[in-house]
């Protein structure tokens, strides 16, 4: 299964928001993080992020199907590019699609000077990012007794 990234328009944002809520629902239920979880984010907040400088949302497309989404912040000013968030819909997981989506994002936006973060307790995410060359910065933020956020960079 190959992956392409299809840039989303403002009109696509409701569809992407619905996908995001569904994709992150399991993590929201697991960690009860109603402040930061993409599953708890309002549609209005997604529209605000869409309008942020340097933000591009993409559908992750495989075999003509929207299998996930990714938001890239690339201000093109020398600051770090950022992936936040990235998701694959539950029925398409564990097929290497997130890996391919990151590789494609790096192809489009350049393969250096990236940052991202993830839940420390989600070992699959950690493995994926480290496999793609992302290194832990050493910063870990305790969110709750259940969850910590770990930060990564790739130069």
What is the average per-residue confidence, as pLDDT, rounded to a whole number? 97
Given as residue ranges, the uncertain stretches (5+ residues, pLDDT < 50) are none
Count of distinct strands: 7
Our estimate of the beta-strand percent is: 25-35%
Order of strands in the sheet with most strands? 1-2-3-4-5-7-6
- The percent range for helix content is 25-40%
Radius of gyration: 15 Å
Indicate how many domains the architecture comprises: 1
Query: Per CATH, which architecture?
Result: 3-Layer(aba) Sandwich
Helical run tally: 4
Helix/strand-derived class? alpha+beta
> What name does the CATH topology carry?
Aminopeptidase
How far apart the termini lie comes to: 28 Å
Morphology call: globular
- In sequence order, what are the helices and strands, one letter per element? EHHEEEHEHEE
Main sheet, how many strands, which sense, barrel?
7 strands, mixed
Can you say what the CATH homologous superfamily is? Gcn5-related N-acetyltransferase (GNAT)
Query: What is the CATH top level name?
Result: Alpha Beta
Compact description:
The chain has 155 residues and is an alpha+beta fold.
Structural overview:
The chain is of the alpha+beta class and 155 residues long. It has one domain: Gcn5-related N-acetyltransferase (GNAT) (Aminopeptidase). Helix content is 32%, strand content 33%. It is built from four helices and seven strands; from the N terminus they run E-H-H-E-E-E-H-E-H-E-E. It has helices at 13-31, 43-50, 97-109, 123-131; strands at 3-7, 55-62, 65-73, 81-88, 114-119, 135-142, 148-154. Strands 1-2-3-4-5-7-6 form a seven-stranded mixed beta sheet, with helices on both faces. The protein is globular. The mean pLDDT is 97.
């Amino acid at each position: 299964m190959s992956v392409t990234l299809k840039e989303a328009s403002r009109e696509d944002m409701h569809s992407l928001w619905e996908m995001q809520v569904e994709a992150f629902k399991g993590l929201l239920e697991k960690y009860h993080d109603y402040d930061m979880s993409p599953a708890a984010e309002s549609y209005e907040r997604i529209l605000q992020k869409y309008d942020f400088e340097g933000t591009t949302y993409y559908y992750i497309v495989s075999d003509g199907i929207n299998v996930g989404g990714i938001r890239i912040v690339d201000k093109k000013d020398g600051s770090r590019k950022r992936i936040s968030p990235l998701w694959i819909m539950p029925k398409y997981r564990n097929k290497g699609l997130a890996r391919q989506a990151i590789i494609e994002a790096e192809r489009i936006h350049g393969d250096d000077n990236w940052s991202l973060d993830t839940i420390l307790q989600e070992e699959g995410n950690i493995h994926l990012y480290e496999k793609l060359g992302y290194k832990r910065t050493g910063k870990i933020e305790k969110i709750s007794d259940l969850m910590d956020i770990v930060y990564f960079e790739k130069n």
